Amino acid sequence: MSHVAITNAVFDHDFNLSEIDIGNLKIIHAKSYEDHVLPCIEIHASNLVKDIEIIGQINADSYFPYCLEFLVGNGSDGGRPQCGPLTKSLGYQAVHQWRAVNDREVWLNDISTAEKLHAEMLERLTRIKAKVRG
Fold first, then answer.
1. Any long-range contacts for 115-124 (C-beta under 8 Å, 24+ apart)?
2. Average pLDDT for the chain
3. Residue 124 has pLDDT above 90, yes or no
4. What is the pLDDT of residues 52-111, one digit of tens each?
5. Is residue 49's pLDDT more than 70?
6. Which residues contact 27 (CB under 8 A, 6 or more apart)?
7. Is the separation of the CB atoms in 99 and 92 below 8 Å?
8. CA distances (Å), 30 to each of 16, 49, 68, 93, 129, in order?
9. Hey, which bits of the chain come out as E strands?
10. What is the pLDDT of residue 48?
């Protein structure tokens, strides 16, 4: 298992560790489902899935001063969310925060479209479930 923190480093190209401004690197914070603002630190399986590339490791002590234990929780209870293996969607929180500032109109439209598609899917599943029961 590994602790993985999501930082504010967002690029639109494949990058390497030398491109990151370490002095301005920060762990981003986001609202949890319980509406707490917490650092984005997750527990992931160390096994890498295909096509995931590690560009480097950074000493977390200067970015997060508290001890990180492998305790599963919600981030506000001393534990961290358990998120399974590392995937290509790792870091989506940083992309959302960047887009909220730099691509706001399109980002809000994308969210609205995704919410509509999700609601339509739930409606279809409800109809299918009713058919199966009926």
1. none
2. 86
3. yes
4. 777 777 777 777 878 788 889 877 787 888 888 887 788 888 999 999 999 999 999 999
5. no
6. 5, 6, 7, 39, 40, 41, 63, 64
7. no
8. 25, 26, 18, 8, 35
9. 2-5, 29-31, 37-39, 41-48, 82-86
10. 66
